[in-house]
Every structure is written in structure tokens, then in C-alpha cells.
Design brief:
Strand 47 and strand 48 form a beta hairpin. This protein is α+β, with helices and mostly antiparallel strands. It contains 16 helices and 93 strands. The protein is elongated.
Length: 1175
Amino acid sequence: LSPPTFSCVGQRCEAVDRTLITSIETGPTCKEGRWIESGATCTPTCKEGFTASAPALSCELGVFSPSIYECTPTVCEPPDGSAIGNVAASGPCAQAGVIQSGEQCVAQCAPDHTPSSATLSCTRGVLSPPTFTCDALPCTVGSVWSSATEHPCVQGSVIASGGICTPDCNSGYGASVSQLHCVNGVLSPTDFTCNPLPCDAPGAVANVADGGACAEGAVLEHRTSCTTQCMAGYYASSPVLDCRLGELNPPTFTCIGNRCEAPDKTLITKLASGPSCQEGARLDSGSRCTPNCQDGYAAKPGHLDCHLGVLTPSTYSCEPLSCVAPIINLIPYVSPLGACSEGNSFANGEPCTTQCALGYEPSVSALTCNLGVMSPATFSCLPSACTAPEKTAVLNNGKGPTCMEGWKVQSGDTCTPNCDEGYTPTVDQLQCHLGVLTPSLYGCEPSSCLAPLDVVDAIEGAACAEGTYIKHGSLCTPMCRAGYVPSVGSLTCSFGVFKENFTCALLWAGEVEKGLCGGHEPLLADFGADLSLGGCQESCFAEGGCNAFCYGDGRCLTYSRCDSIEATASNGKDQTNYTCFKHPSAAACTAPVSMPQARSTGACCQGSSIDIGHRCSVLCEEGYYPELTDLRCHRGELEAEDAVCLPKHCLAPVRIHHSKVGSQCEEGSVIPSGGTCTPQCAEGYAPNVQSLSCHLGNMTPGTFTCRPVGTSLLTTETRLETPLPPNMHPKLIPSAGAWRGTTAHYRFEANQGEAHLYRYFWRGQQVEQTVYDFSAVGGIVWISHQPDNWAEAGSSSYNSMIDDFIEIVKKFLPASVMISVGHEPDIHCDICVGDADSSESSDSTTGEAPYGTIAEYQAMWRKFQNRFEAAGVTNVIWVMDYAGKKSVQTFREIVIPLWPGDGKIDWCFFNLFQLGGPMDTSRGNFSWQIMRTYKNFLTESGPGHNFTAVPWGLGAWSTTDQESHCDRMTYLRTAMKDLTSGQYDRLRAMVYFDSKSGIVTEELRPTYQEYLNLPQFAMNDWTLPPLRLCPPPANISNVASLGPCQEGYEIESGGVCTPQCGDGYETITERLDCVDGQLNPPTFTCIKKWAMVGSGLCSSGYLGIDKEIAEVVDCQHACENSAECTHFCYAPDNPPCYMYSSCKGFRDATNSGKDRSYYNCFQKPSSLMELEALV
């Protein structure tokens, strides 16, 4: 058998079915599992809080005993009475034994004790609470004490036995006892009272009296007061403190130091208004009194301290403020030792002696301390002026200062040596730099004499056999040309002047000469060495056939005319008249007939016969100029009969955009006839022609343009480096040569190359745009203003006029502008009018009222200059403009006093005009006029009127149409000769008066053109900066087929576009100006004409238009309101039409009219025939 045997074991028991037991724990009903072996036991399982009815079930052969169990709630054991203490003798719970779940333990204590919890509940074996205590009996506070709170004890209404009751009284009250004790339900003491609290005296009060803060003591009863008390020197902030319910009112006080009274004002001088202390009349202890002194004064001491009612010190004084030296960092070139030689601090009234670095001098010698402020506040260090050499160091100087500029010469300026008349300095000038003259000294040597010039019939250029310059003390042997003899054998040079003059007289058959004049000397009519004989000359010329006259004793001027003309066989001369004679050998000259290239109609402007003493003004064919401009007639012969006419040269073109800086021709600025000009353009540009040819003064082609390489239109805006335009030169002084000036608009409008300077006369009118345009391209504008009442112009009533002037000048920025106020004052002042020299001006005031006194003129200048300076005008160049043609005496009496002052004027101009023929020396001879005027300004210059310190110019000069063309040409040619001679190099500008009688006629223009081409002018012609092109207006209906502008499609800045419309259309816009690439106005409109004759319907000056045109809206609406109206009139020079509010009325085409107050509507004529009838 396998297994071989078996055994019989007791049958197992299966755990009780769960469903039969309530409140069972999860899992099997037996802790040991589902199957219990026979002989083993099953430990029942219940939920927590429940207990099995049997502790175990025994399994015996498959049967439990007992067979089942129940889970019942667990019972509670009563609390441990021994642990609680003082429980009842029967135990802690009223019921004996355990307490069933759901029942209560009624707690019980020994007598005089009470349980902390009356009951303890049993729930499934747990008591709640788990235990209790037996406490002695508490005390119940049931009564309310007076002035106590609602709960008299802080701890509440019930006080545990052994606890305390802390009395709780109302605010301001205190309990009679601090606490009550509870013992087994009884308080001890059994009661308390709430009494009003006392007050403690304030504590921690500084400076309180030794007896304490309150005189009544440290504690104050309710409804009593504290009398405060402080140490000596202090007072209480509150004299009394009231005690109410334990609180003082106010709660405390402070002990304040006694206050101080401000010092007595009557004892202190230089006080400012108000109390003597800035803080007030009374000061708190511990504070300071800030003294209250007047401006410029400081208190000594600086403050007073108040302590316990006592000021220390008791008062103060107001002393003048001291000053400190200016800050050296703010003064350039100040001395390294400091600004003041005395130091840095100065008492009132003490001076500060200013000091500068070596080579500089202070603008003021001293500053004075005045009440804390230096007067003046500071100074500047200016370059030191130089002191002119001592007179004792310069021999032969007896004319005052050794420098013509004065005893002081500013740094950077020059000292012009000042020698006695007849002496010449060894150096031309001494340069001043930072107080040092270089060279430091000069000498004065006796002047040499210049060989006489312009001696008629002397050998030209060799009037002295010894040479051009004759030393002092040496002799000049006069030299006359053949047929003439000098009046003296020799001339002695004495201190730069020949003791006598000589003349070259025509030999009159020896001794017969005097016989002709009754013992007096004869002279030819063209004798001109002695100007005092001019009257005789003039009288002789007036007699036609006269070619010589007698004179003697210098008294010819007393005779006004020749009594008669007599043959040479006669004689006669007395003191009441003189007689003119015909010289046996004197004869008129015949004009050259074989001069090469002379004008075929005659070589002399004066004709074929030239009177003795007169000149032939040479005329050449077109394209030629005379080698000698004037030939004098002597004894029937013309000077230099071999003179020729030479081909005119050409000037290089100027003002070529994008040309090379410098000459526009590779060959130079002057091209000889037959030569060529090779154009030169800037880099990146090429000329449109390879060369220009010069032929007899004319270039072919006349000019050239520089275009960008590889392009057809000039579109660049690049500005190349160009010569400085005239109006940007410092002080408007040309670098070399002179400015070419004019007074005529068309001179620069027609040809931009003619003028560098334009003189404009302003009397308050609006300045024309062309003047601004001239400045915009680089030209200098000189504005002359001529007030005819100097006193008024110097007063405040003229302010608005000056302010208008200021605004005009500012508009020219950044260009500088020349300004003159009251030109030619030397013929307009009260002592000038009627002066014999005044008639020598184009602006003569003969017979007119004067403009004012010299003093009023000076005041007017100051007024203008001060107002310009106050307005911040920075581009004004001040110009003085004289008539200038004065005798030395008149020059000193009038011209010099009119000078506004050195440093006030930047340019000095004077004026010359041809007012007579060439033989009228003072009025028609340019050489004599400029020599006298130039000499006056040169020799009369001195301190206070240093004319030589500024550049000069001819402010207005011209020929006159009152003289013949030949005389005008002679005057102009003489001027050109003198202006290029080098004698007048101080003249840096010449303004031709191309106005009034000086207007340049077409006949005179060739000669005038030669003047314009003088080299000193041509060297200053400048190239215009490149300008932007303006595109022509676009999108214009009914424009001409050739384009909108007559000038084409390239309009340069400064140019104009002249609008052009298609057939049958017109425009009211006359021109569009091109300004820096923009047209103004930008466009125009082409409007339909009134059948070409529409204007016939309107008054003169008005045009007619269709009512559909929209530019004149008001007119359009007015016309539209009339059904029959199809057209209306308007003024193109007075647009827009809105000046007129309505159509006055409708008129038919046969009626016309238009005035300034209304316009009329018209019905358009229906037929051409009707139009023709209207026209």
C-alpha cells in the first residue's frame, strides 16, 4: 500500500459564519483562521469597542463549544478614586461596579468639594472625560462695588478656591486692596472700594527746581493742582498742572530758558528795515540772532547767542563788506601771480590794481571794492598796446606823436612813422605785437624830391637831368623838349620840395616875347603848371582864336575875359585888362590819317582838327584799342604820332559751374587776340567744347559749360571748393586788387560777371528780391540810407525805421553787408551847404536846407550803431561816404569833424564826378580831382580820424551826359590810366554811378567795358557755386507742345520759367522763379481765352475768363449765380478775385467796365463779327 497506512484524526471545526455575528471585525471570526484543529480553541474577533460573549470556543471533533458567540459593547471601569483624591467614601461614581456602554458615571466628591465634571459618559469601554477632579468650592462674585467695572474682578465672576480676585476699578480710580483670596467659596477680605487716584508730579523735566517739579510735593490728591517750578534762568511752559482722577492736565511741562530781547536798533547804523535780528524782536534761549544789515554790509560779529535771557555779545555793528579778487581761471592771459597785485582780499574802498601776463594789459587799471562788490566786477587782459618811440629818440620829429596813429598803437596794428615835413622815415612802419614795436625805433632823414611830373613840354620821364629822385640839397637841371626852354636853370631840392618850379615855354623869338606883353611874360593857352592861372586859360579858350595870353604879378585872376584878339605886331597889357594874342608859329593839329586800325571815320573823337593845347581822344576800329589813349596838340604837332591801335584781348569766361578753381582757361585769365582758351573743369566734369578762340576781344564760342562725365544733364548738388565769394571776405576787403561796383540794377541782372559790389539807396521801401538774389550768389550789397533830418534820425522817433533797417540787414546772413548812414555829409551839414566845393557833387544841395549840424550827424551815427549792436547784428560793415573834394582848409573844418571815430568805421569812400570839360581842371580833370582828394585823406589822417587805418574806395564816380561824348571818353580813359598807375593803391573798391546823368550810353559802352576789364577788377571775379536745376512743372493741361517753359527743360537756380500755353489758351502766371531746385509758384494753369479778344470786354488791365475756371472761386460763384453770365473780368496783377464780393450786375457784350470796387459779368459774344465790332 502506498502510503502503507493512515491514522484517524479528530475532525476540524470551521469558524463561525460571519453573517451570524454582529459588530465583528473584518476577516475570519477566529483569530486563528477559518479552520480550527480538534482539541484547539478559537479566539473570537469583534470590532474595537466590542467584547466577545465567550473568551474562546473549544473545538472537539468538529464541534465548537459553545457553538457561537456575540460581540457586545465593552463596559467602562470607574475612574481611580485614589488618583483623584477627595472622592466620596462610596467611590468615585454614584453607581457601583462597571459602567455599561451608553451609561454615565455620576461623579461624587467628599464634602466641601465639587467634581470638575458632574458626569463621565461610557462609550464602548471609554469614559469621557476619562476622569475628574474634586476641587474645593469657588467664590462667586455677585455684588458690584462703587466705581468698579461691570466685573469687579479682572479674573471674572467666579474665582476658584485658592485663586485671587484682582479688583478692576474704572479709569481714574484705584482699589482699596490690591487683591482678594478665595478659600472654599469664601473671599478674603470679603469687599473692596474704588477711590479717585492721586497724581504723581511730572518726572524727567530738565532744569526743574531743586524742590521738585511741583511746589505741593511729589504726589497730588484728586482735584488739587501742581504749581510748577524751574531753576533760576528758566520759566515753566505751563505755570499750573491740574490733577483729575490720577492724570495731570497738561500731563507735564518744560523748563524753557528765558528769552532775549533783540539789540536796540537806535544804537546800530546801516541796519536794514525790520528788527535788528532777522529772527524777530525776541529770541528763544539757545537760538541765534542773525544781524540784519543793509546790502553791502556785514555784521561784526556775525551772530549773537541767546542763553537764558542774555545775548552774547549784547549787540553788533554793520561794517562794509570786503571783496575778493576776480577768479583768475575766468580771465585769459591774467598774471600768474593773481588778478590783483595787492592780493586776494580787499576792504571796502580799497583798490585792486589789475595785472596781466607779460605782453597783455588790463582793460581797466584798477577795480574798487564797493560794499562787497568789485567795480567793475572784473576785467579782461588785452594785448598790450605799444608806446610810440620817445620824441627825444627820433630826430627831426616835431609833429606830436612819433606814430601817426598816436602815442598808443594797438597790438597787431602798425605805427606809421611821423616825421617833420620835409623828412622821410628810415622805415615804412613799425609792427606792434604784445607791447613790443619791431623795429623799436626809426630815424627821420631829409626827404628827397621827386622830379617834377606833368610839366608841359618837359622831357617825359626825365624832367631832371640827374634822374627821378633828387637828394636833399642837390640840384635838378630842368630838361625841356626841343623848341622849349625851362624857365629856370636849376631847381634845389630842400627837404623833399623844390624851392621853385619850372615851366617849359615856347621860344617867342627871344627878346620879342616881352615886347608882346608890355613887359609881362607870355604863356601858351595850354600852360597848366600854375593852377592859379586857370582863369586866364579859361578866358583865353573862350575866345576861340586865342592860343596865348599875357600874365604878370600873378594877377590874371582879376581879369574875367580877353578884351580882344590882336595880331602879334600889337602889344599891350595893363592892370585892368589883358589881351589875347595869336602866336606866329602856333597852329592847330591835324588828326592822324594813317594810324593802323584807327577808325575809318576819323582817328580823333574831336574831329580832324585839334586846337593847340587840346587833346585827340584816339578812336580805333571795333576790336582794337589805342596804344595811347590821348594825344596832345603842341605847335601844330600831335604827341606820339606813331601811336597805333592794338587788337583787343579776351578775358577768360567766369562763373562756370563746376569749373576748376582758379582760371577757367588753361592759358590764364587773359587771352590775346588770335589765341585760344582751353577750358578747365573740376574733376568728374568735362567741358562741352575743346577750346574757345579769341578774335579782337570776342570769344568764340562765348563761354562753355562743365557737365558730369557720362551724363547729359547737370543733376549733382555737390559744392566744390571755389574762391571765396566777395561778400564772405573778412571786413569785405578783397585779397588783392579792387571790387568792381555799380549803382544800376541792370548791371548785374543782365551780366552777373560785371559787378562785385552793388550800391543800393534805401529810404524805407521794401528791398527788391533781385538785391537779395545778388547777395545770394556772392555779391556785396552796400545799402546807403540818407535821412534828410539828422536830429530826427538820432532820436527815438526814428527807432522803427532803424529796426526795419536791422531786419533787412539780417536777411542777408551769412553774407556781410556794407551800411552807410547819411552819405556825402560834407555837402549836407549846416556849414557845408553853399560851400564852393559842394557843387562838385552829383548830389549837390545848393539852395537846399541843410540836414543838420556836425554834432547831430555824429549823434545819428551813434544811434544807428548802438541800436544795431543791441539787436545783435553781426553782418554789418560800417561805411563812411564823403563827397570829399575839398580844399585843405575846408577838409579840416568839415570832413575831419564828421568822422564818427576811429574803430567805428570799416571803410572810407569818397566820390568824384565829371562836371566840366577836360580843361576845367577842378571839375573835369579826373587826375586833378583824385590827386587832391586822395592827398587830403592821406596827409590829414591822424589820431581820432585815422583814415589810413581802413581801406578806401570811390563810393560813386562817373562821367556826365552834360559833356560831349569825347570829353566823357577822355575822363573815363584818364581814370583808367590813374587807377592802374599804382599811385592810388589804397582804393580797394570803385562804384561807378551808372544812374542819372552818369548813365552809360551805348556810344560810351566800349570804353566803359575796357574799364570793367581792368586787371584789378578781373582778378576778383569768382566762380558761382553749383546750383540745383528746377524741373519744369508737369501735368498741365493745354500746355504748349514745346513744353511748359520757354527756357526749355533745364531751369537753373536764380533763373525763371516763362509759362507757355497751347493755341487758344493763356495763363495769368507771368513767371515761375527757380530757387534752389524749387519753382515758385510750383506750377501754372492754362485757361481758355475769350476768342483771343476777350479782354476787350474788360477795362484796361483786366482779363476775361470762362466761369468754369476754378482759381478765382468767388468770381466763379458770382458768375454762376447769373444764368446768362458766361464770363467775367479779373485783375491778373491784383489776384485773387475774392476782393470783389459779387457781380455788380449783368452786362451784355456791348457794355464794358471794371473798377476797384466791383466787377461785372458778361455774356460771351456769339459771333466773331460781333467781337470784331466790339474791338
